[in-house]
Write a structure and sequence with these properties.
The structure is a single chain. The protein is mainly alpha-helical and 491 residues long. Helices cover 54% and strands 4% of the residues. It is built from 24 helices and 4 strands. The protein has a two-stranded antiparallel sheet. A two-stranded antiparallel sheet has the order 3-4.
Length: 491
């Protein structure tokens, strides 16, 4: 009570135990926490499967990431619960914006430090979380500190502001005037919000050697210009990744070509027009499409583009659970034609949406299907951070088609991965050249002996993994030579 007899009460942020003491507040708190964590878990598991993503996250990174995620979910839920249960949040607009920014930052920074978040690339952050010095952990810490600031700011305001008056007392003498609350400007909120945005976009600009997931202590090559003269036989590496004699797959063309024409997946006239602009289809390629062939499939520098289209058409049309139930359907939003692998196919007699998973060209047994799904989760491509299990571009869909064809003749996991290693090398010669060079310099490995699972995996061959390899080689002045750019994501 004041000196003039007016009753007052002091508002404050209650302790967490007080908030949780009321049943509805407890339910709201738990619900908000679980929902924020659920969003983060879903973000972690996409675009690849959980097994693929979690396998690529080091334990020393995963534990602090999960701890900061939990704290980052608890604190906002605590604040929001108190807001609904007590009184309007002070500095309403800026406080809600800062809280939303902190929660968003916590969600965005959830993922694999080497194969994460296409969303970051859409925001101009190449390399995903690996672009940050601590692989995104610093973003989570900033998010948590932002919420802590909001709690501190509120407690400070409660101490400094005049108290809130109780409802009017009918026995109160007239004429008493209660001093209005002093308004505080949310300068600190603005500064915190700006600092979060600046940190988000500036931290990826630090040198690669200062980044935990791009630094490699075994890289001993010199800096720009390679002044120490590391001896590198570029010609040998190029020959290994794309040998003149090609790479033979343990399977024949069979009747796939005629089936693709029969289903309308390939319009021979359209395909002929496409190739006429560069190099016409050979007699053998025409025979493969129109009559089928018992020839073993051998990919080389001359037919790599043809086989990309051939396998792309096969992967697009063949009925398979990966297309019917996998990430393509999950992320389609009801429009399966929105992806580059579907909307980009313009060589058929029918729209790609009609061709999609429409014909049982290669029936697989359960064991064969399980093998395709297992291997498809391991194979990446440097044009994006998605595994083949999510074939949203032409290279991914073509790889899926090839894996199904190999599995249908009972090729084992090792054969599928090795085939993917060399097929990717012909489709992405420049990127594979750099991966081969990197393996040679850092581990003393020849491309021939490089583990196929590593050669096509997220550490080296996803967009973010390859970006790390490219940055290190560029800093060492070893990118003057190459093996060519390869094919694009269109026809």
């Amino acid at each position: 009570m004041t000196s003039n007899g007016v009753q007052i009460r002091k508002a404050r942020i209650p302790a967490m135990g007080e908030v949780l003491s009321e049943g509805w507040s407890r339910l709201l708190f738990i619900s908000l926490t679980l929902n924020i964590l659920l969003v983060e878990v879903l973000f972690l598991l996409l675009p690849a499967s959980s097994k693929t993503v979690l396998a690529g996250i080091p334990g020393y990174y995963l534990i602090p990431m999960l701890l900061l995620s939990i704290i980052g979910a608890l604190a906002p839920a605590y604040l929001i619960t108190w807001v609904f249960g007590a009184r309007p949040f002070p500095f309403a607009v800026m406080s809600w914006l800062l809280l939303g920014l902190a929660v968003a930052l916590n969600v965005i920074s959830t993922g694999c430090p080497t194969c994460s978040s296409p969303l970051l690339e859409q925001l101009g952050i190449r390399g995903g979380l690996a672009a940050y010095p601590l692989g995104g952990l610093e973003l989570k810490l900033i998010s948590v500190l932002g919420v802590v600031y909001l709690l501190w700011s509120q407690r400070t305001k409660d101490r400094e502001d005049p108290p809130y008056p109780s409802p009017p007392d009918p026995d109160q003498p007239p004429g008493e005037v209660i001093a209005p609350r002093r308004k505080r400007k949310p300068v600190g909120h603005v500064l915190w919000g700006v600092s979060i945005i600046v940190a988000f976009f500036s931290m990826p600009l630090v040198p690669a050697e200062m980044k935990l997931f791009t630094r490699n202590e075994s890289v001993t090559v010199a800096g720009s210009g390679n002044p120490q003269g590391v001896a590198v036989d570029f010609a040998r590496i190029i020959e290994q990744i794309s040998p003149q004699g090609g790479y033979a797959l343990p399977v024949t063309y069979g009747e796939i070509g005629p089936q693709l024409l029969e289903t309308g997946t390939i319009d021979l006239e359209l395909m002929g027009q496409l190739y006429a602009a560069s190099e016409p289809l050979t007699n053998l390629q025409l025979e493969i499409l129109t009559q089928g062939s018992d020839e073993q499939i051998v990919i080389d520098r001359e037919n790599a583009r043809f086989l990309l289209h051939f396998f792309w058409a096969l992967g697009l049309t063949n009925q398979n659970a990966i297309l019917d139930e996998g990430p393509m359907q999950i992320h389609s939003g009801g429009d399966i034609g929105r992806f580059a692998s579907t909307g980009g196919w313009t060589l058929g007699q029918k729209p790609a949406t009609e061709l999609y998973s429409s014909a049982p060209l290669i029936p697989l047994t359960k064991d064969q299907q399980d093998l395709v799904e297992k291997v498809a989760q391991q194979i990446y491509r440097p044009c994006c951070n998605n595994a083949t299990i999510f074939p949203d571009c032409n290279h991914g869909m073509a790889m899926l088609g090839m894996l199904q064809l190999l599995a249908s003749v009972d090729a084992d996991e090792e054969a599928l991965l090795k085939a993917a290693k060399y097929v990717n090398a012909f489709w992405f010669p420049q990127q594979t050249f750099e991966v081969g060079l990197f393996a040679n310099l850092t581990q003393g490995l020849e491309f021939e002996t490089l583990d196929p699972a590593l050669a096509v995996g997220p550490e080296l061959f996803s967009a973010s993994g390859f970006n790390n390899v490219h940055s290190l080689l560029g800093a060492a002045g070893l990118l003057d030579q190459g093996a060519g750019s390869g094919s694009s994501c269109g026809v």
